[in-house]
Protein 1
Amino acid sequence: MTHMSEFSAPEAPDTPAASGTSGTSDTSGTSDTLRPRTLRAELETLTTEAFRPELADVDRLPTLGIARLMNGEDATVAAAVAERLPAIAAAIDAVAERMARGGRLIYAGAGTAGRLGVLDASECPPTFNTDPGQVVGLIAGGPGALVTSVEGAEDSAELAAADLDALALTADDTVVGVSASGRTPYAVGAVAHARARGALTVGLACNAGSPLVAAAGHGIEVVVGPELLTGSTRLKAGTAQKLVLNMISTITMIRLGKTYGNLMVDVRASNEKLRARSRRIVALATGAADADIERALAATDGEVKNAILVLLADVDGPTAARLLTDSHGHLRAALTKAPGPGPGAQDATG
C-alpha cells in the first residue's frame, strides 16, 4: 500500500515543467509568449534532453539494429551508478539511522520518477514485512497519475508540500525527491519543504548541478547522458533511478535487520508462492527437515525469522519472539542472546 497525492494533475514521464529552478511555479514578470522560449532554452542545457545527431536515422534501422543500440545504451547505466556509490551509501546510512528511530522513507516524484518511487514503496511490505506506512510513494497528481498523464501536477511545489503535510511529516522521516531533469518543481518542492521541517532529504537526479540536489541534504546525480530518443527519460535515466531506488530500499532493510545473510527472513507469506518461499528460506537458514520446519512455522504463526530462531536456538515460539524484540528484530543479535543452538541445527548462512 502506498500513499499518493490526491490532487489532480501529473505529466508525461519526467518532462521538465515551465518554472524557475527554485522548484516553485513562478510566472511573475514572465509573459505567456516568453515562458515557452525560456523553458526551451533551459531544456537545451540539460544532458538528459540533448539531441544526438548520429541517431537521426535510427528509424531506418532494422529492428535488431535498434535493439542492439538500446542494449548498448543500457549497458552504460550501471557504470554511471557505480561512480555515485559513495554518495548512495552515505544517503542509505542516514536513512537507516532515521528509520531505526521509527522514521519513514518517503519517495516524491512526477511522471516516470514518481511511478518508480511508488513501485519501490509498494514492494517493501511483501518483501520485508514493513508496515504499509513505513515506506511511502508520493506521485504528483495522485493514483490516476500512475496510468494516465495528469497535466500540470509536476509544476506545483505547493502540491508536494500539501502531500507531505497530509502525512504529518516528522524529523525522523526521510524524503527522497526523484527527477531525471533534477528541476521538476514537485520533486524540488518536496525536498525543500521536508528539509525546512527537519526531515532527512535526498535528491536523485540525472543531470549535474541540479536544483534538486542543491535543495537536498544528500545529493545523488547519476549522469547517464542523452537518451536514444531525445528527452525520453523513461529509458536510461529511468533505469538508473530504478537501480538507485533498489539500493536505497534493499540496503536500508538489510541495515535494519530485515535479512539474514542474503535471505529475506521478514518476507510476508501472503500467497501460496510466498508461503513456499518461506519454507525454503527456513530450510536454507537451518538445514532442518520439512517436518521440523512445519512445526516451527506453526509455533510462530508463520513468521519466518521467528521460526529460524526456534530451530537454530532450540527455543519455543514465545521465547523467540522475546529474543527478537530485545534485539530490535536483528536475527543474528537474537542468536547471540539465545541459550545455544539446538542439536543438529545448521546455520547455512555462515
Protein 2
Amino acid sequence: MTEAILLVGGKGTRLRPMTVNTPKPMVPAAGVPFLTHQLARARAAGVEHIVLATSYLAEVFEPYFGDGSSLGLHIEYVTEREPLGTGGAIRNVASRLRSGPDEPVLIFNGDILTGLDIRALVDTHETSGADVSLHLTRVEDPRAFGLVPTDATGRVTAFLEKPQTPEEIVTDQINAGAYVFRRSVIDTIPTGRPVSVERETFPDLLATGAHLQGMVDSTYWLDLGTPQAFVRGSADLVMGRAPSPAVPGRRGDRLVLDGATVAPDAKLTGGTVIGAGATVGEGARVDGSTVLAGAVVEAGAVVTDSLIGEGARVGARSVLHGAVVGDGAHVGADNELRDGVRVWCGARLPDGAVRFSSDQ
C-alpha cells in the first residue's frame, strides 16, 4: 500500500479559542486528538508510512504520537518555517517520501472527517492511469467550495473556485480534500514559496494536459473548521455516524472517559463526550457537546451543541447553546450564552452577566 502525507500546519483560526494552545488536528474529537482518527483510518487502509507536514504549534505533535509505532505506523515530521500553503507543504516534505516516480502518494487535509474508501481512491488512480486523483463529494450548496466538474469517464474538466451565481454552479461536485499524486508530479511543485494546490497546482496541471481523475464518494464528509462543525463531528463519531477505529469506547449517546465524574441524575445525550477528570454536576444536562479534560459543568447547567475547553468551568444553572468556552475560562452561574458566543481562554464571566429576555 502507498505512503501518505497529512497536511496539519494550519492555524485553525476559525476554531479559536480552542486552537490558541492546541493545533486544530490535536483538539480532541470523540475522546482523542482528531488526528488520531485520520491516522487510524489510513492504517486500516494499509498505509504504513506517513509524513506530517506541520507548522503552527509544530512541537505538539511528536511528543504525542512519537514514531507512530503505537498505531502500527512509521511517522515522520517536517516543519515549515514559514507557511507554504497546501501545495508548498506537499513539496516541502517530498524528500521524506520513499515511493518511486510512478508510485502513488496519498495526501489528506488535516481537518476533514470522512468515510472515504481510501483503498478505492487508490484503485481508481491506478486503473485510470491518472497523474492526480481527487476525492470528490456532492453537497447541496456548493457556493463555499471549489467545484470540480468531470466528464462521463470521471476525468476532471475544470476547477471553479467558490461560484456565487446560479450560472456558475455547473455541478454539485466539490474537492473533498483527499488526493493521490503520482510521485513524480510532487516534484514539479515550485519550492521556496507558498503554493495553493487548489488554486495553482491543479489548474496548471489541467492546462498542460495532465490527467486528473475524480472519484465521487458521497459517504460521510465534514469540514471541521468551525466550532459548530467540530462538535458535530465529534458527536457523530461517538454515535457511529462517522467511521473511525480510534474511538475509545462503544458507540452510543455518550462517551465518558476515565477519571470523569458524572452525577447520577445528570443527563448526557447526542454523542456527548466528557473528558478525563471532568465533572458534571447534579441535574446538569449535556447534549451533543464536548467537555474536555478537567472541565466542570456545575449543577443544573444546560449545555447543548457546545465546546467546553480544558479546565474550564460552567456555573450552576447556566445555559449554553452553540457556545465555545476556551481553556481555563470560567462562566459564572446563571448565564445564558447562545448562537456562536465564544469565551476566550482564561476569561471570567461573572454570575448572571449575560441573559436573554423571553421575547428574544
Protein 3
Amino acid sequence: MLPPGGRISGARLARLLGSWQRRGARQGSADLAAALKLLVADGQLPAGTRLPSERELTDSLPVSRTTITAALDQLRAEGVVESRRGAGSWINGPVGAGGGITGSDDTLIDLSRAAPRALPSVRMAMDVAMGQMPEHLASHGYDERGLLVLRQRIADRYSSRGLPTSPDQIVVTSGAQHAWALVLRLFVGPGDRVLVEQPCYPNTLEGVRASFGIPVPVPMLNGGWDVDGFDAALRQAGPRLAYLIPDFQNPTGLLMTSEQREALSAVLRKARTPVVVDETLAELALDGAPVPLPMAAFGGDSVVTLGSASKSHWGGLRIGWIRASAEIVHRLLSTRAAIDLGTPVFEQLVLAALLESPETVLRQRREEAREQRDVAVAALREHCPQWSFVVPGGGLGLWCTLDAPVSTRIAVVAQNHGLRLVPGPRFAVHGGCEQMLRVPYTQTSEVLREAIGRLGVIAASVAGTGFPADAELSLPVA
C-alpha cells in the first residue's frame, strides 16, 4: 500500500532546492542527494510526498538524468526515498542511524532554532506552581480563556509598556504558533490572501498555507518596512489579513520605529485590513534603547497581538497568548473548541510566577542574549569577514548577507560537518533570499565560537577556495 501524500512538481522542487550545486563539483549526485535530504529534514518534503519522474526532474534541474538516477539510488539505499515500478517514487521520511537523516540529531550543533535554554528562574517558578496545584485539582481543569491570575499579569505587562489592557482582552494559548492558528481559523478562508513581510518567519508561512490561504509578500527595505509598498500591496491584493513582526523582526532583527508604526497603522486602517502583530521577541531589547509603544497603541481594535514565553523564558513551557478587542476575543473563544479546550494549568501557573516580577527575570535573559550576540558578532567578523550584517538591537539572531547566493549549499554542506542551519530561502514566500543566512545566537558562548569557526571553514569550501590546511572538522561536536 502506498503512503498518502501530495505530489510535488519538478518546477516547485527546483525552487525549493535553490542553489544546491557546489562550484566545480564532479559528484553532482551526492550534492543533489544531500540537498533533498535537507528538504526532508526541514519538513519541506514530508513523508508520503510523491516525487516527479526522473524525466520531469531532468527538464527542471540543470543536471543529467544519470546524475538524478544516482542521487535517487543513494536516497533509496539510505531509506529516505522508496520507489515501486509503475507507482513512482515518494519520500519515506527521515531515518535513524542506519545512514539517513533525522530532524533532531543530538550530535549536531543546532543553529536552526532561535530558542534559548531555560534559566534557573524557570525551575524556581515550577516549584512555586507545584505548591499552587492542589487548589486547582478539585476543578475540571478546562478554561478556554486561561487562568485569571495569568491573564491579569499579561495584561499588567501590556499596561506597563504603555498599552492599557484588561484580562478580558487576553486569551491564553499553547504557544504563539497555536495562537496564530486560532486567528487564521477566525479570519482566513481558502483562497484568502494574507500580507506578510519578506523575509518572514517560516512557520508563519506554513500556517497560512495550512489554512489554504495565500501569503502575499511585501519586501523589506534596508531601513525596515516599506510603508508605500504595503499601501500598494493592500490596494492590489485586497488581503483578508496582514501579519507583522515589528519588534526585532525574525529573521532580520529590525525594530519598527514609532513613525513607521503610526504610518503603517494608518495605511492598514484605510484599507480596513486587520493586522496580526507577533510580539514573541518584544521583550528582548538588548541595548537599553527606548522601545516604541506596542503596535496596538497605534492601530487600536484592528490589531490582534500575539505573545509567547518561548523566547523570553523557555520554549518548553508552550505558553502563548492573544491580546485583542473584547469582540474579537468573543469570536475566538466561540471557534476554539473545534481545535482544543484550553491550555495546561501547570504551565500557566509557572508563567504566572515568572511574571510576578517580570523585569527581574527578563534582565538575566537579556544579559545572556547580549553576551551571546556579541560573541557571535566577533566570531563572524573573524571567520566570515566576507559576509555583512547589521548588529540588531534585540532579538535572537543575525541576518547575514553572504558573498554569493550559496545559502542552501552552505546548509547542505554544514550537515556533514556537525552543524544544522536553515537556508535563506525558507524565509521567503516564493524562493529567493539565497544570498542570506540566519545565524541565531542562542547557544552558549563556547558552542557559538565552535559553530561559527566551522561555518567559516564551510563557507570557504563552498566559495571554491578549499578547506584550510589546518581545518579540524573531525573534532567532537560541542
Protein 4
Amino acid sequence: MRLLLVEDDECIANTLENILGNQHYVVDVANDGELGWELVEAFKYDLILLDVMLPKLDGIQLCQRLRSHNYQAPVLLLTAQNSSTHKVMGLDAGADDYLVKPFDMSELLARIRVLLRRRNSTLQTVLEWENLRLDPGKCEVVYNNHLLNLTPKEYRLLELFLRNGHQVFSRSDILEHLWSTEEAPQEDTVTAHIKGLRQKLKQAGAENNFIETVYGLGYRLKVPTSSKNLPQKTKENHRLNGAKPSTKQQIRDLFYEAQDLHNNIQQTKAALTKLWEKLKVKSCDRISILEQATAALLENNLGDELRQKAQQAAHKLAGALGIFGFIKGSRLAFEVEQMLRSHMNINHNQVLHLYNLVIALKQEIQQPAFAELEKILCHDILDDAIE
C-alpha cells in the first residue's frame, strides 16, 4: 500500500515515515500543501495523511481541492486543533476521518487499517498461492508451514504479486509501487530483491521459479500446474469454510490475536524510542525558542516575529511529544501555545507562570520516551489486580 504524508513538522514526518515503513507501507512525504497536490497528480495513493496547518496550501484547502477533482482515496486529517469547529470543517471538506495530536501511534495505525479496509474489503484477507500463505493482518508469510523472515521490501513485493495473481510487473512498475519518491533506486535493485525473495522461498521448499521471469516483460507468480489451484485463492481471516470452531478454539484464537497485537505495540514503541534519540535535539531547539520568547516577555519586549516563532514551536511540540509518550509534556506545550496566542492580555504573574511552564517542559523531555506512559499502565494493572 502506498501512502502520502503531508506534514511540515520534520519530527512528526520522520517518525510517521519510519513507523509506517515498518508496517510495510510505502510512504511519500510532502512538507507543504502544494507539493502534496503535485505528488497526488503524479502518483496513485491508497490513503493520504494530511496535516491541517500547512504552508502554501493548508490541509482543509488541499482536501477540498482533492474532492473537487473527484479524488477518491481516503483522507485522514491530523491536527493539534481539538475544537468541534475544526473537526466539522475538515469533515465537510471531504476528509474521511480526523485524529487530534497528540495521538497514540497504535490508534493511528488502526484508523489507517479501517480506512483501507472500507475502501477495499479484500485488503485484510489472507492471500494464498499454492503452498504460500500471506496474512496482511499479522504481516506474516508462510510457505509449507515454514515462516519466512522477509525484509519489508520483500514482503511488499510478494504482496504485490499475490494481490495481482496473473499480472506481469516490469521492473519500473515495481519501483513505482514499492519505492517512495525520495528513494529512487535503479532497476537493478528490483532484480536483487527478486533474487533474495526467490532464495528464501526455495529454502522453504518452493521451486526456484516460483516467481517466474517473463522475458522482455517482467515478473509474475508462476501459474500452478494443477487446474484446481489455477485462480488465486483468498479466504477471510475469520473462517468461511468448515465447521464452526469450538469455544476453546475461539478463546485460543483470541489469545493469539491479543498476543500479536501486544508484540506489535511493543515493536512500535521500541522503534519510536530509538527514533526519539535522533529527534530529541529538534525538540530542544524548539524549547530554546520558547525560552527566548518568555525572557523577552519578562522584559516586556516580545516582538511579533519571535512570538510567532515561539507559538509555532509550542504548537509543533504539543503534537510531536505525545507520539513519544510525553503526555504531560504535550499538555504543557499546548498550554504554552494558548498563552502565547493571548500574550497581549496576560499580566506579570501569568508571564511568570508561562516561564515556569517552559522550565517544566524542558525538564520533561529529559525523561526517557514513554516513561510516563509506562507509569500509567503499571498503575492501571495494579488497580485491576487490587479489584
